């Protein structure tokens, strides 16, 4: 009995304590009710956001209902609407109003809801009069980060996304700690970037890991130029994180004087931090700029990088450089005139264009506006894009009385890279400008040919096309594309030296592409690839000038400024170039585009051998994995493709050429015939079906030939 009595006493004490605590909370609630709107509703004790936030920012719908203090027996006004817009009502109606008008159209950010607010806390244009207009135009959202007022929901979403892209994810009313940075290592170079580094145009430290191949190609081009003359002044006009200039200075050392430029102050700060991270000295061009010390453990490092904060056009107008790289957002045509104004003779200008939608004929009106070029979508659209960019570069160089020699043109999925060497003089400018022509493109068969030189108007321009689609098809079958660059896209000697530089510095991703480019420049297959060219092993011809390779000493390289010696070398090289040099064929054919319906194509490497045996120059191309660059006309291309294709419905026929009169390939047909005999011996009951297949094959080939 005593135990039971003690338990009852304990339970009574607990009940008393609970009732007292409930009474205390009720008294606190009644005391805080009149000041709840002024205190702006704490976000559930969260330390991420301040206590003076707006009342429209809540975490749950229940928190928003607590603001209204819903009671069934009393009418309450909406805490987010003025009285003239929404009158006081009972709890069930006010609950539906808060849910439908405020909560459902809110903007969510990290568990919080920014509800729409109709209170007169947003300034309205003074020409608006009337209570209804004032209440309608006063609807807005309050940003949880910067307390800005935004009228539209879509604008509020974009406003929040801009905060996230800039790394601003905490409220500015409290002490904001710096966003955590990430260190990325590429080619033995460390760069510090923000978490949003992969978002272009919305961050101050844009870094694209997918452009690693582009950076390696540019580094190889600079390494080749550094072998010719030392030291060279090079400019990275759009530094961003400074990764490219840091790689130049870290690997080439005293051979280059690197200048990294950017017009954004935050980017310049990041570039300086990355220089210290890689133990590089920083030289500023500001008035107060003095050389910053190297951040290192007592190591002496003579490598110095100059960091400038200017517009790219301004710095290229003020100073001269041997190597300039342009990599802006989108097109680079706005910077070409400045780049060619002060670039030194026999210097190099490289540019990366990322406006793929216009260059790849997805936005043709933009290509006409930026490049002054009419284009359509073709099977060779990537090479077309490279020739469009080179034509713009040629015109910009010609305006400065300079000519160009194209060393490299690469068009991949995300960018178009063009590397040219600059040749001073009006004569070289005229020769380069003459290589800009229009292209006649047949829209039926995809045949193409550059328009002939001259200003005379022809009666029938369709006669220049090798195909006869205009005579057999109704209407106009061809379009005029351009103006385009009609010259060569590659320099074999320069590409070979780039390959040697890639091997020397261990750039694994660039080596396979450079091998493909060398084969494409020589128009040969990869099995005929060799390290040395067909000419002298110690000399490579570029821009009409013989330049010795790395097998020779540094003293025998060309010295810029000795114009007489350069003119003599150029004249000798031009005579020899006309004797033994041959440019690669323009454009390429896609095998799938010209395949025959109902026929199995041969393997691509075998098809290249078949075209080579037919007496044509042939190679693969980096522009298209299924593309074939050849000097064969389209009709001969289709003939060889049809000859070595097999019907898809034959059962026992092995892969090999189809027998046509006047063609003897006994050595290659013998294994295929032996395989066919073995299969016939294994299946003796299929003779009738085999004969029927042979007859149907001949009829199908005759039908294709007639077409």
UniProtKB/TrEMBL annotation:
<dbReference type="GO" id="GO:0000049">
    <property type="term" value="F:tRNA binding"/>
</dbReference>
<keyword id="KW-0820">tRNA-binding</keyword>
<keyword id="KW-0597">Phosphoprotein</keyword>
<dbReference type="Pfam" id="PF02005">
    <property type="entry name" value="TRM"/>
</dbReference>
<dbReference type="InterPro" id="IPR029063">
    <property type="entry name" value="SAM-dependent_MTases_sf"/>
</dbReference>
<feature type="compositionally biased region" description="Basic and acidic residues">
    <location>
        <begin position="17"/>
        <end position="39"/>
    </location>
</feature>
<dbReference type="GO" id="GO:0002940">
    <property type="term" value="P:tRNA N2-guanine methylation"/>
</dbReference>
<keyword id="KW-0808">Transferase</keyword>
<feature type="region of interest" description="Disordered">
    <location>
        <begin position="655"/>
        <end position="707"/>
    </location>
</feature>
<dbReference type="GO" id="GO:0008270">
    <property type="term" value="F:zinc ion binding"/>
</dbReference>
<dbReference type="GO" id="GO:0016423">
    <property type="term" value="F:tRNA (guanine) methyltransferase activity"/>
</dbReference>
<keyword id="KW-1017">Isopeptide bond</keyword>
<dbReference type="GO" id="GO:0005730">
    <property type="term" value="C:nucleolus"/>
</dbReference>
<keyword id="KW-0694">RNA-binding</keyword>
<feature type="region of interest" description="Disordered">
    <location>
        <begin position="1"/>
        <end position="51"/>
    </location>
</feature>
<comment type="similarity">
    <text>Belongs to the class I-like SAM-binding methyltransferase superfamily. Trm1 family.</text>
</comment>
<dbReference type="InterPro" id="IPR002905">
    <property type="entry name" value="Trm1"/>
</dbReference>
<dbReference type="InterPro" id="IPR013087">
    <property type="entry name" value="Znf_C2H2_type"/>
</dbReference>
<feature type="domain" description="C2H2-type">
    <location>
        <begin position="143"/>
        <end position="163"/>
    </location>
</feature>
<keyword id="KW-0862">Zinc</keyword>
<dbReference type="InterPro" id="IPR042296">
    <property type="entry name" value="tRNA_met_Trm1_C"/>
</dbReference>
<keyword id="KW-0819">tRNA processing</keyword>
<keyword id="KW-0479">Metal-binding</keyword>
<keyword id="KW-0863">Zinc-finger</keyword>
<protein>
    <recommendedName>
        <fullName>tRNA (guanine(27)-N(2))-dimethyltransferase</fullName>
    </recommendedName>
</protein>
<keyword id="KW-0489">Methyltransferase</keyword>
<keyword id="KW-0832">Ubl conjugation</keyword>
<keyword id="KW-0539">Nucleus</keyword>
<keyword id="KW-0949">S-adenosyl-L-methionine</keyword>
């Amino acid at each position: 009995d005593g135990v039971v009595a003690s338990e009852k006493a304990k339970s009574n004490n607990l009940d008393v304590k609970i009732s007292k605590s409930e009474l205390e909370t009720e008294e606190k609630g009644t005391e805080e009710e009149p000041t709840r709107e002024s205190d702006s509703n704490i976000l559930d004790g969260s330390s991420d956001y301040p206590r003076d936030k707006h009342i429209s920012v809540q975490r749950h719908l229940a928190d928003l209902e607590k603001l209204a203090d819903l009671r069934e027996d009393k009418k309450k006004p909406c805490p987010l609407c003025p009285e003239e817009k929404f009158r006081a009502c009972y709890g069930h109606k006010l609950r539906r109003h808060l849910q439908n008008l405020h909560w459902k159209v809110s903007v969510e950010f990290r568990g919080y809801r920014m509800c729409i607010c109709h209170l007169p806390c947003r300034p309205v244009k003074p020409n608006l009069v009337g209570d209804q207009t004032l209440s309608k135009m006063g609807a807005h959202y309050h940003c949880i980060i910067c307390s800005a007022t935004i009228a539209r929901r879509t604008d509020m979403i974009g406003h929040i996304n801009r905060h996230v892209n800039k790394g601003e994810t905490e409220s500015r009313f409290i002490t904001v700690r710096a966003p955590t940075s990430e260190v990325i290592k590429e080619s033995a170079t460390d760069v510090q970037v923000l978490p949003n580094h992969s978002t272009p145009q919305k961050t101050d430290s844009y870094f694209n890991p997918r452009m690693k191949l582009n950076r390696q190609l540019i580094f190889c081009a600079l390494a080749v130029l550094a072998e010719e003359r030392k030291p060279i002044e090079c400019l990275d006009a759009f530094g961003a994180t400074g990764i490219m200039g840091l790689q130049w200075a870290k690997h080439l050392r005293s051979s280059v004087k690197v200048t990294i430029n950017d017009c954004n102050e935050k980017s310049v700060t990041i570039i300086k931090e990355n220089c210290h991270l890689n133990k590089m000295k920083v030289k500023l061009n500001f008035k107060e700029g003095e050389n910053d010390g190297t951040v290192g453990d007592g190591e002496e490092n003579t490598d110095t990088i100059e960091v400038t904060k200017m517009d790219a056009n301004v710095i290229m107008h003020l100073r001269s450089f041997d190597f300039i790289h342009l990599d802006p957002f989108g097109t680079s045509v706005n910077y070409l005139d400045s780049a060619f104004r002060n670039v030194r003779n026999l210097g190099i200008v490289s540019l990366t264009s990322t406006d793929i939608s216009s260059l790849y004929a997805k936005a043709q009106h933009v290509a006409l506006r930026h490049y002054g070029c009419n284009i359509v979508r073709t099977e060779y659209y990537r090479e077309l894009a490279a020739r469009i960019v080179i034509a713009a570069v040629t015109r910009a160089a010609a305006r400065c009385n300079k000519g160009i020699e194209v060393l490299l043109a690469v068009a991949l999925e995300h960018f178009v890279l063009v590397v040219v060497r600059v040749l001073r003089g009006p004569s070289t400018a005229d020769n380069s400008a003459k290589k800009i022509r229009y292209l006649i493109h047949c829209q039926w068969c995809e045949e193409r040919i550059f328009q002939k030189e001259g200003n005379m108007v022809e009666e029938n321009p369709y006669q220049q096309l090798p195909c006869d689609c205009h005579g057999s098809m109704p209407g106009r079958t061809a379009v005029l594309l351009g103006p385009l660059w009609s010259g060569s896209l590659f320099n074999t000697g320069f590409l070979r030296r780039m390959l040697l530089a890639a091997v020397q510095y261990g750039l694994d991703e660039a080596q396979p592409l450079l091998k493909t480019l060398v084969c494409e420049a020589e128009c040969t297959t990869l099995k005929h690839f060799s390290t040395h060219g067909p000419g002298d092993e110690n000399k490579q011809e570029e821009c009409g000038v013989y330049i010795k390779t790395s097998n020779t000493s540094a003293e025998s390289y060309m010295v810029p400024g000795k114009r007489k010696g350069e003119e003599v070398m150029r004249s000798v090289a031009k005579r020899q170039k006309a004797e033994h040099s041959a440019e690669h064929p323009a454009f390429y054919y896609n095998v799938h585009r010209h395949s025959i319906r109902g026929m199995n194509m041969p393997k691509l490497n075998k098809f290249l051998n078949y075209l080579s045996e037919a007496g044509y120059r042939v190679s693969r191309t980096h522009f298209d994995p299924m593309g074939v660059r050849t000097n064969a006309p389209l009709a001969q291309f289709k003939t060889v493709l049809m000859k070595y294709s097999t019907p898809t419905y034959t059962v026992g026929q092995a892969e090999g050429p189809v027998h046509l009169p006047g063609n003897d390939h006994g050595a290659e047909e013998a294994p295929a015939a032996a395989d066919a005999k073995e299969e016939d011996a294994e299946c003796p009951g299929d003779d009738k079906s085999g004969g029927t297949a042979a007859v149907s094959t001949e009829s199908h080939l005759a039908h294709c030939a007639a077409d």
